[in-house]
Amino acid sequence: MGNLFRNIEQLIAGNFARSTVMTLLTLYIIRETSVSNFGVYSTVLAFSSITMAFVNFGLDTYLTREASRNLKAFFPLLKGVTKARVLLFVLSEVILYLTLTLLEYPKAVVVLTLIFAFDPLLSFFLDSLYSLRYIEERTRIVPLAEFGRRTLLFALVLLVADGNLMRIVLSYPVADTVVLAAVLGVCAGRLRELKAVSEGEEPDLWNLLRKNLPFSL
Predict the structure, then answer these.
(1) If DSSP states are collapsed to H, E and C, what string results for the chain?
(2) pLDDT at residue 12 is higher than 70
(3) Those residues with Cβ within 8 angstroms of residue 108's Cβ, 6 or more apart along the chain or in another chain
(4) What is the model's pTM?
(5) What burial class does residue 65 get, using C-beta atoms within 10 Å of its C-beta: 0-12 exposed, 13-18 middle, 19+ buried?
(6) Is pLDDT of 81 > 80?
(7) What confidence tens digit (pLDDT) does each residue in 188-213 have?
(8) How far is CA 88 from CA 58, 69, 102, 119, 217, in A?
(9) What distance in Å separates the CA atoms of residue 196 and residue 96, rounded to the nearest whole number?
(10) Average pLDDT score over residue span 69-80
(11) Within 10 A of 52 (CB to CB), how many other CB atoms are there?
């Protein structure tokens, strides 16, 4: 029970710290960009919710639920969930491109939106790794990684972007990739262990998407 409360406290503290960093980042972007550019930035963020809905699709709920029943099934489940995310991401990119083109948004907005869409994809890749830590009740890395990811993003925007909208947008997937690599490095040993003792087959892609449709709504 003490471990549970400690994990909850760490997650709450991590969420608060992450929210604080993102608030400061937003204020900085408002200050450094023009009114028109901030409008473009807000548009890009809004359209990214389409990708977020697609690559989420209830897959983390499914992964955590099924792996909690049998941890040895985690690795094949992770492979299936990852493939599903990639497929859904590609589909979301096509939908974004067609939507923005039909609505006659400027080419710059289309390009920025398609680039920014990698942020939710990489974020949910991280969530898949976090699922393993939640199942094993070793969640300390989660708030640390999330705080580190947002702090790195803020640092990139502050030191490299210089108010340039393209650099600001690119900073998101760059920060995500660095932290994803770090978390993957931390979890690599455990993933190898689970791969060695894995049970069950990788779930069929179409059945996986069909089963998770209710969780995506």
Answers:
(1) CHHHHHHHHHHHHHHHHHHHHHHHHHHHHHHHCCHHHHHHHHHHHHHHHHHHHHHHCCHHHHHHHHHHHCHHHHHHHHHHHHHHHHHHHHHHHHHHHHHHHHCCCCHHHHHHHHHHCHHHHHHHHHHHHHHHHHHCCCCCHHHHHHHHHHHHHHHHHHHHHCCCHHHHHHHHHHHHHHHHHHHHHHHHHHHHHHHHCCCCCCCCHHHHHHHHHHHHC
(2) no
(3) 40
(4) 0.86
(5) middle
(6) yes
(7) 888 888 888 887 777 777 877 777 76
(8) 12, 26, 21, 14, 15
(9) 40
(10) 87
(11) 15
Residue identified by tokens 């299936």 is 80
What is the rounded CA–CA span in Å between residue 104 and residue 107? Answer: 9
12-27: average pLDDT: 71
What the block records as the tokens of 194 is 């689970």
CB contact at 8 A, 110 and 101: yes
For residue 106, what are the contacts with CB-CB under 8 A and spacing of at least 6?
none
4-8, 32-36, 151-155, 211-215: least confidently modelled range: 4-8
CB neighbours of 80 closer than 8 A, spacing ≥ 6? Answer: 202, 203, 204, 205, 208
94-128 pLDDT, tens per residue?
A: 999 999 999 999 999 999 999 999 999 998 899 88
- Are the C-beta atoms of 114 and 97 separated by less than 8 Å? yes
Tokens (6 digits) for 62: 């499914």
